[in-house]
Amino acid sequence: MAKKKSDTPKPYAWLMKSEPDVYGFADLLAEPEQTTLWDGVRNYQARNFMRDGMQVGDPVLFYHSNCRPPGIAGLAKVASEAYADPTQFDPDDAHFDPKASQDDPRWFLVDVQAVRELNFVPLETLKNEPRLAELPLVKRGNRLSVMPVSKEQFEVVLELAGDTDA
DNA sequence: GCCAACGTTGGC
DNA sequence: GCCAACGTTGGC
User: Which of A20, A75, A147, A159 is deepest in the core (most CB within 10 A)?
Assistant: First the structure.
């Protein structure tokens, strides 16, 4: 019987960035089961959120980065426990990590499943919303690709998307 | 394409 | 363990 690692409550939801030219929300919708492995994350803070913070079923805001305009494109959810990112073991993969081994993986991921497309919420709209001032995304210089979102922040985003199906 | 911000690496 | 150099992110 495993003891819980922490008594602090887990974040309610998450925001995950992807470049739509590489992999956008439409690509997720086109997957079998509308599910994919969120591979290629090579940042320790983002990894820790996936490995230690996420729980199956957590809502995920799917954010389009490095495009015009950037913003939130869809709603998804965490669809698996964290497990080792297989791309770290593949020498032919761009995300190969020679310091990782099967016995001692460095990088973890979760499966992400689409829930529904949202009316696009541009970054500019997020920045102009006072109730989202504490969202890491809108803070100057923030580059985290996976970040926690509180219940209140999540609900504000759905409101900005005109989403009434929540 | 520019460049500010930030994370990582490696020499010492 | 410091910190300069370097690479990457990502908005603009």
Answer: A75
- Residue-number span of the structural domain to which A85 is assigned: 5-160
Burial A21-51 (b: 16+ CB within 10 A, else e): eebbbeebeeeeeeebbbbbbeeeebbebbb
pTM, rounded to two decimals: 0.93
Identify the CA nearest to A160 among candidates A116, A107, A123, A112: A123
User: What is the sign, positive or negative, of the torsion defined by CA atoms of A101, A102, A106, A109?
Assistant: positive
Instruction: Using alpha carbons, select from A36, A3, A19, A130 the residue that is nearest to residue A71.
Output: A19
CATH of the domain at A148: 3.10.590.10
Q: Which nucleotide is nearest to A64 (CA to C1')?
A: C10
Is the Cβ atom of A140 within 7 Å of strand B at any atom?
A: yes
Residue A148 inside a domain? The answer is yes
Q: Which nucleotides of C are covered by protein (CB under 7 A)?
A: 8-12
The pLDDT tens digits for A60-85 are 999 999 999 999 999 999 999 999 99
CB-contacts to strand C (7 A): A 17, 19, 42, 65-68, 70, 123-124, 127, 143-145
